[in-house]
Amino acid sequence: MAIRWGSYKIKGLYDELIRVAGKPRYGSAPLCQYLRDLSDKEIEEYKSAAEMAIGVMGITFTVYSEEEGSIDRAWPFDIIPRVIPKSDWDKVEAGLKQRVIALNRFIDDIYHDQNIVKDGVFPASLLENSVNFRKQCVGIDPPGGIWAHICGSDLVRDKDGTIYVLEDNLRVPSGVSYMLENRQVMKRVFPDLFENQNIMPVDDYPSKLYDMLATLSPRAIEQPEIVVMTPGIYNSAYFEHAYLAQQMGAELVEGHDLVVLDDNCVYMRTVDGLSRVDVIYRRIDDMFIDPEVFDKSSQLGVTGLIRAWKAGNVALANAPGAGVADDKVVYSYVPDIIRYYLNEEPKIDNVPTYRCFIPEEKKYVLEHIAELVVKPANESGGYGMLIGPHATIKERENFKKLIKKDPRNYVAQPMVTISTAPTLVNNRVEPRHLDLRPFILSSPDDDVYVTTGGLTRVALRKGSIVVNSSQGGGSKDTWIVDDGGH
Amino acid sequence: MLSRVAENIYWMARYIERAENTARIIMVNTHLLLDMPKGEQLGWKPIIQILDCQQPFLECYDDFTGRNVLKYLISDPDSQNSILFALQMARENARTIRDIIPREAWEHINDLYQIAKRNAISGYSKKGRYDYLKQVILGAQTMTGLLAGSMLHDIGYDFLRMGRNLERAEMTTRIIDVRSANLLPEHDGLTPFGNIQWMSVLKSLTAYQMYRRTYQVRIRRPDVLKFLLKDKKFPRSFFHALLEVKHCLLNLPRNEEAIILLNDVGKKVLRADQAILKQIELHRFIDALQLGTANLHNAITRIYFQ
User: Fold this and answer.
1) Shortest Cα distance, chain B CAs vs residue A270, angstroms
2) What contacts A115, CB < 8 A, 6 or more positions away?
3) With an 8 Å Cβ cutoff, are A270 and B1 in contact?
4) pLDDT top residue among A232 and A151
5) What is the DSSP letter of A389?
6) pTM of the model
7) Going from the N-terminus, what domains does chain A have, and what CATH number goes with each?
8) Is the per-residue pLDDT at B248 higher than 90?
9) Which residue in the set B98, B110, B155 is minimally distant from A246, CB to CB?
10) Where do the DSSP E strands lie in B198-273?
């Protein structure tokens, strides 16, 4: 037998599948038993079957490298799933809904009366120095006051089992297609596991996304024209853009496919001539969306798009400006934001965060940098951060300088020893750290939908806690297993 | 349908067809060379001429040896005339229209490209070549079948068929042009080797068997040319490809100009009886046909893609 749970070492870690050496957690027992009974040969076969499925399905992501330009890499995938009992998940889901509802209220307030600032809960200075606050969006009323229609929140679990939100991605969160594809691969490779267990399906996401987008249409027509707007095939998430368009039956457009005419409506160029567009699910950053309003040199955007949006002739999801709440300094205020707008206590906690723009907190960060993880406020993809305990003295000193130069742009958090799950390494299981990104959809009619689980990203390098695919991360299928309300 | 998408479908189809045709030409030439007498040095140069790529070829290689030509036409990374380049372009075009073509079709072209890339070296060797080329040809045909069987037969499919058939029509004219120029001067009594060469022309277009069924006579130049240029029922004849394009155009909006251009070429090829007999006239005539298909391509590009 290839997988011996007795010799799987999780001392000092929280493992998602194994409670203590040799003993699976509630809900993981059937899976662990199944894996234990596999021979070396079977594991090898399943692994290559999964690799083959990924190759044939063309699941890729794009990485930029100076030597090779942009290249497609096969999506690194581990065949051992991560299991979450449904009773646990229900609590997380409720917490995420609460969070996203509050965040949307916050964004809408920020672009209107800014009551939260007036009431002294949120400092005005943060807005003035916010990279993602768009003054051009002040006073605009997107349908239902919803700005972040699609949110991807990253969850981690600490040593003691507590689940925290690590960050919220409110601009153009990606990864949902991999969540869907991972499940497809698993079903192809392990059909028997799905027959014998109550694994909740994930496949309804594209239709939920479509329904949500349709509710945004400015024209009350049966079939509004919904398009997915991509920067093009060299974008790292292009696979996902094409995938979602295909799954929704929507056109996948690039900037030069669209044009805004004098009537302030958006049209796409088709073989029949021009055709009106109602809803744009844009997967392109605010800054490049309209050279008339934002980055003037953008080749990716559509001139006049913001004009059309302001006139209410087209819906944009996510709304430009929604990224103001993406900021990691703003993140540290989310518990207060929840209390302020909803008058409730947060159901999921934040990781404690030190804000360098506050002098006392900055002092603490500079003194304790060796224990902390320092992050820039507005980077994504795991770029530009310092993991204090793993860094060299020189790297730490360098970050101290950066913090002193631009304190507003940095936050620091205690190092969370994020949880692990068994991962195949040379046909044996070893613990690898992972996180979870669920996706939350918000419609103007107050309907909030959370994916069943989400995308589990795993750091494939031993001991690493960086899960981003651009930096040696992979992924696993995520199972919400219905345990009948254990 | 988005203009850009229509264009990508069109080019995907062209490149798939191009990969298949290139594989067929190499395959037939391989067989032909085995049958030719030792003294005759037909070699591989005509293949480069058929594909109209002497100049880029000579930028990469000094002479037309089999190995050079095969490398150039199968997988040379500097070559834009290789099977691998065509498959890669087909795949890139398919990638941008993954929301339009059925998933199986994308998986297939992706797979085909990867296999062709991985095994390219076996295409250079005499032993592995047949299997390699066969795989490419069958792979391209599978793609055609997959799309015919599972893609919506809407105007996107019309663009697909137009791309395939225009590519086919052009390749047919090129094969006729180069192959006939290389044949010995025409007289009634064909030498056995002349016969073999006309057979190879037919075989390059998988037309041999169908020619036999249609004509039931020995292989004669006028009949071969008539069959390849004017036959209405043979799918690789020039005229048949043109008719296919016409059927597609009739489904499209704003088609007037393109149809006029197409009818002009059609009339030209049908009136061709006299011209096809003499070699020099044939060459001029083929030039005119190629100009006609190029104009048609440009019109389609201008009307629908821009």
Assistant:
1) 4
2) A109
3) yes
4) A151
5) G
6) 0.78
7) 352-415 (3.30.1490.270)
8) yes
9) B98
10) none
Res. A73 pLDDT band, cuts 50 70 90: low
Q: What confidence tens digit (pLDDT) does each residue in B153-173 have? A: 999 999 999 999 999 999 999
At what angle are helices B238-250 and B221-230 packed, to 10 degrees? 10
Closest CA to A476 of A451, A457, A461: A457
Nearest chain A residue to B93 by CA distance is A233
Max mean pLDDT range (A294-303, A333-342, B187-196)? A333-342
Contacts of B99 in chain A (CB under 8 A): 242-243, 245-246, 249-252
Task: Please give, rounded to a whole number of angstroms, the shortest distance from the CA of A209 to a CA of chain B.
Answer: 16
CA distance to A154, B37, B70, B71, B151, per residue, from B67 (Å):
55, 20, 5, 6, 39
**In the prediction, which pLDDT does B52 show?**
85
Q: Is the pLDDT confidence value at B183 over 70?
A: no
How far apart, in whole angstroms, are the C-alpha atoms of residue A291 and residue A258? 13
Task: Give the best residue of B91, B93, B98 to mutate against chain A (max A CB count within 10 A).
Answer: B98
Contacts of B110 in chain A (CB under 8 A): 55-56, 58
Contact present, B45 and B137 (Cβ < 8 Å): no
Task: Indicate the pLDDT class of residue A446, thresholds 50, 70 and 90.
Answer: confident
Whether the pLDDT of residue A296 is over 70: the answer is: yes
Three-class SS state of A110: helix
Say yes or no for a CB contact (<8 Å) between A58 and B106: yes
Q: Is ipTM over 0.90?
A: no
Rounded mean pLDDT, A400-408: 92
For tokens 């709304």, the residue is: A319
Contact B1 A272 (CB under 8 A): yes
Q: From the centroid of its chain, how far is CA A98?
A: 17
Q: How far apart are CA B273 and CA A131, in angstroms?
A: 73
- A62: confidence class by pLDDT, cuts 50, 70, 90: low
Our CA angle for B66, B68, B70, nearest 5°, is: 65
Residue B77 phi, psi (nearest 5): -65, -20
Q: Label residue A74 by pLDDT band (50, 70, 90).
A: low
Taking an 8 Å cut-off on Cβ atoms, the answer to whether A250 and B114 are in contact is: no
Which residues from A are below 8 Å from B when comparing CB atoms?
55-58, 233, 242-243, 245-246, 249-254, 256-257, 268-273
Q: Which residue of A has its CA nearest to B303?
A: A271
Chain B residues closer than 8 Å to A257 by CB: 2-4
Q: DSSP secondary-structure letter at A312? A: T
- DSSP state letter for B218: -
Give the CA-trace dihedral at A143, A148, A151, A157, to 10 degrees: -120
User: In angstroms, rounded to a whole number, what is the distance separating the alpha carbons of residues A256 and B156?
Assistant: 20
Q: Identify which of A55, A245, A269 has the shortest CB distance to residue B99.
A: A245
User: Which residue in A243, A252, A269 is closest to B3 by CB distance?
Assistant: A269
- The answer to whether residue B65 neighbours chain A at the CB level (below 8 Å) is no
Reply yes or no on whether the pLDDT at B191 is more than 70. Answer: no
B111 touches chain A (CB under 8 A): yes
